[in-house]
Amino acid sequence: MGRTYAGILGPLALLACLAHGVWHGRSADTILLEAWVALVGFAALGGVLGWIAGRTVEEAVRSRVALPQEAPPPPTPPAAR
């Protein structure tokens, strides 16, 4: 899951920085440097967040599977009159 998050957040940050730089008329060197730094930073952040999300899901599934199966209580006999 970490690779997925990193693979999404990194390129998304890169594209956002490219668009921001072009919109504001910055030089190509500045745009590419900022975009590259954003790509690396957000890919690392996405990797960490994805790792945390993956661990959380795995622990939830393990705890759900590890619970003993509860049997319904036995029926109570009718009261004698």
Give a brief rundown of this model.
The protein is mostly helical and 81 residues long. The protein has helices spanning 2-23, 28-66. The longest helix has 39 residues, at 28-66.
Task: Output the keywords.
81 residues; mainly alpha; 2 helices; 0% strand
Explain how this protein is built.
This protein has 81 residues and is mainly alpha-helical. It has one domain (2-66). Helix content is 75%, strand content 0%. The chain is built from two helices and no strands. It has helices spanning 2-23, 28-66. The longest helix is centred in the middle third of the chain and has 39 residues, at 28-66. The radius of gyration is 26 Å and the shape is rod-shaped. The N and C termini lie far apart (63 Å). The mean pLDDT is 89.
User: N-to-C terminal Cα separation, in Å?
Assistant: 63 Å
Rg calculated over all Cα atoms: 26 Å
- Spans with pLDDT under 50 lasting ≥5 residues? none
Q: What is the number of domains?
A: 1
Tell me about the biggest sheet? none
Structural class category: mainly alpha
- The count of helical stretches stands at 2
- The SSE order reads HH
Shape: rod-shaped
Strand proportion, as a percent range, falls in under 5%
Number of strands: 0
Helical residue percent band: over 70%
**Mean pLDDT, as a whole number?**
89
